[in-house]
UniProtKB/TrEMBL annotation:
The lineage of its organism: Eukaryota, Metazoa, Chordata, Craniata, Vertebrata. It is an enzyme of class 1 (oxidoreductase). InterPro entries: NAD(P)-bd_dom_sf, SDR_fam. This is 2,4-dienoyl-CoA reductase [(3E)-enoyl-CoA-producing], mitochondrial. GO terms for molecular function: 2,4-dienoyl-CoA reductase (NADPH) activity. It comes from Haplochromis burtoni (Burton's mouthbrooder).
Length: 333
């Protein structure tokens, strides 16, 4: 009897596995995209979500605003009326982005060179910002560094480089601005861009995971401590959104993109414009009651990776009939 059950279960496992493979190739074909499935239900919208003028007379600092997601956030805030300052190491990149965005929106974007790892450079950068626009109302800590690497291959300097940019950089910018804002009795919205694996941890990006977890602790702590000075602190944890900076360092060959899209329930990557709309909302006065929030923005990837039984998505209705019959037959333990 036991042998018959094992034999049947084994055959069933084979059937389930081979139709899972057929299903996978039907879903993804050779393009690696799930076009024709969930992605069609959840197409991205690219236009600014908030009413025009939502950031009139407001100053916003975006670190790492010259490229990728920071650039998209700058474009959206500028379109909504903010005067923006973008800060990072590469002045030429910042200046090009600043010119392109201000020529599209008609609102000034300033470029300020700053290596966030250096507290003195951060202090000088804030001096420059005060002279240019006054202290900002909106601060987005978006600058980061990362690369995939087995932890046994990391040098002390590799560890230091990533944790300096991500954790110390965010802390230096936040503390320098926070202290000056408190002195000037001006409230502000602080937003940190972390990642979904700040919560779970992740192999192969251990310095980034450790530093982003630290950033989350910093922001949650300050939300509690500095609310009394009129400061709000929030966190967005993005899932995968294609940028040159991230993808060239995390999936340099493109070999993992298909697997990544497969595990995202909404069937696609996020877009820079989508996260820019969320960041604008969180940084706006429409969100003035939001502080200490951690917002996961990942198309469902995190829960999809976490659930023990989620692989059962590949079981077909016919296979479910078989499985259910087997389960119902099982009486007692
Ligand atoms: C299953 C696969 C999934 C695929 C996923 C695909 C897509 C993404 C999905 C989700 C993303 C989630 C989170 C994303 C988080 C991010 O932060 S993405 C943003 C990435 N952007 C950047 O990193 C931009 C800035 N980066 C840089 O400027 C550089 O890359 C760097 C961080 C290295 C800093 O540059 P620099 O200060 O010039 O440093 P050095 O070149 O001097 O290097 C310092 C030390 O680090 C060692 N090192 C450098 N690169 C590597 C490497 N690839 N592997 C190992 N070690 C490296 C270098 O040797 C130096 O150490 P030593 O002095 O030699 O000891
Ligand atoms: N794209 C994605 O899928 C995801 C991204 N994220 C997060 O989103 C944010 C933006 O990443 P993304 O746009 O993809 O990548 P980018 O590489 O385009 O952005 C990183 C930015 O950080 C700046 N930067 C790096 N080092 C320093 C430094 N020492 N001082 C000042 N600025 C620095 C870079 O500018 P410069 O070189 O001029 O210094 C660059 O503009 C990051 O916090 C990242 O961790 C999180 C999850 C997913």
């Amino acid at each position: 009897m036991a042998a018959r059950v094992v034999g049947r279960a084994g055959r069933l496992a084979l059937v389930v596995r081979s139709s899972a493979v057929r299903l996978q190739s039907r879903l993804h074909g050779s393009t690696g995209l799930r076009s024709g499935s969930q992605a069609n239900f959840f197409p991205p919208l690219e236009d600014a979500m908030l009413p025009s003028g939502s950031f009139n007379n407001r100053m916003a600092l975006i670190t790492g605003g010259g490229t990728g997601l920071g650039r998209a956030m700058t474009a959206t805030l500028s379109q909504l009326g903010a005067q923006c300052i973008i800060a990072s190491r590469k002045l030429d990149v910042l200046q090009r982005t600043a010119e392109e965005i201000s020529s599209q929106t008609g609102n000034k974007v300033h470029a300020v060179q700053c290596d966030v790892r250096d507290p003195q450079a951060v202090s000088q950068c804030v001096d420059q910002i005060e002279a240019l626009t006054g202290l900002p109302d909106v601060i987005i800590n978006n600058a980061a560094g990362n690369f995939v690497c087995p932890s046994e291959r990391l040098s002390p300097n590799a560890w230091k480089t990533i944790t300096d940019i991500v954790l110390n950089g965010t802390a230096f910018v936040t503390l320098e601005l926070g202290k000056r804002l408190i002195q000037n009795q001006k409230g502000a919205s602080f937003l940190a861009i972390t990642t979904i694996y700040a919560e779970s941890g992740s192999g192969f990006v251990v310095p980034s995971a450790s530093a982003k977890a630290g950033v989350e602790a910093l922001y949650k702590s300050l939300a509690a401590e500095w609310g009394r000075y009129g400061h709000r602190f929030n966190i967005i944890q993005p899932g995968p959104i294609r940028t040159k900076g991230a993808f060239s360092r995390l999936d340099p060959t493109g070999a993992f993109e298909k697997a990544m899209i497969d595990r995202i329930p909404t069937g696609r990557l996020g877009t820079p414009a989508e996260i820019a709309n969320l960041a604008a909302y969180v940084s706006s006065n429409y969100a003035s009651w939001m502080s200490g929030a951690v917002i996961r923005f990942d198309g469902g990837e995190y829960v999809s990776l976490a659930g023990e039984f989620n692989e059962l998505r590949s079981v077909t209705p016919d296979q479910w009939k078989l499985l259910e019959a087997m389960i119902r037959k099982t009486k007692g333990s």
